Amino acid sequence: MGAAAIPFHATVMPSLRDPDSRLSLVTRGLLMPIASVDALGQIIRFKPDVCCTTGGLVSLPIVLAARAARVPVYIWEGNAVPGRVNRLLAGWSQRIGTTFEASLRVLPRARTTLAGNPIRRSLLHWTRESARESLGLPLDARVVFVTGGSQGSAAINAAVSGALVRLVRRAYVIHHTGTANLAQAEAKRLTLAEDQRERYRVFGFLREEMGAALAAADLVVGRASSSSIAEPLAFGVPLLLIPFAAAADAHQSANARDVAEKNAAIVLPESQLDPDRLVATVSGLLDDPSRLARMAAAARAAGRPDAATAIAADLRSLGGCG
């Protein structure tokens, strides 16, 4: 039983950490029949109306078992570039939900819908006013929210550290550093002049405060994972995206391009990231309110805050659950 009181069963199929390793492929291939039989047993016991998966190699035996038991399959694809397994599973699924329009080019169009990325509803109750009041930020201030994801980003943190004095002159900065990098960021904060420290807010990890940070921001600087993009868009906040250079299949770069093509984001490659470039890019946006407003409008248009509800409705329809 998981933390949300949802029954949980793990098959023996591990994820494929190294797709280029022949040994990994062989061991996963040997485990596939065992994992498939195990999954089929769970399906017979549980009697599901529909199978929902986000794909990847670990889902392959479950989907095989579901199709053997004639259980309809729904795949949710979170990236603009679907993985190899998801492209394979797409041929066996009855319906597919995607987050980015770019993935529609390689998935079966007749069975694929632009569903968006599910977002915790608890994040969405924040408004700009309530968020800024909670965080102690002036209503008329410029606010930049910088995040490298739940564990933080060494590259982004280093650029912020080098640019910090110049950034806080231009805006209040909320910095989500990752727990391991919090002490270093707090030490950097103490080097600021006393009147500037208030303009730099540091957090190692954000739970429900994530919604407040997003709602308060005029600009979000961060990575280009599916959720890192979907959450700011749900609040209608423009993005400066720095795709993780080592992401598999360069999927973060593809995600970023998709949003940039909608004019809701600009992309700064990690290879070009340094303090000077970060300051110049952020300042260029803050100094151009009309452009920032156009990007915010594009972000609102691209955002899908009700994605979870739409996906749930699709699943219920596919499973004949009313």
Topology:
Blueprint: H1 22-46, E1 51-53, H2 60-68, E2 73-77, H3 84-90, E3 95-98, E4 112-114, H4 128-135, E5 143-147, H5 154-170, E6 172-176, H6 182-190, H7 194-197, E7 200-203, H8 209-216, E8 219-222, H9 226-234, E9 239-241, H10 251-261, E10 265-267, H11 275-286, H12 289-302, H13 307-318
Helix pairs in contact: 1-2, 4-8, 5-11
Which properties best describe this structure?
four-stranded parallel sheet; 13 helices; 2 domains; Rossmann fold; six-stranded parallel sheet; single chain; elongated; 45% helix; 322 residues
Q: What does this entry look like structurally?
A:
The chain has 322 residues and is an alpha/beta fold. It folds into 2 domains: 23-117 and 306-318, Glycogen Phosphorylase B (Rossmann fold, 3-Layer(aba) Sandwich), CATH 3.40.50.2000; 122-302, Rossmann fold. The chain has 13 helices and 10 strands. The protein has a 6-stranded parallel sheet with strand order 7-6-5-8-9-10, sandwiched between helices. Strands 1-2-3-4 form a 4-stranded parallel sheet, sandwiched between helices. Helix 4 crosses helix 8.
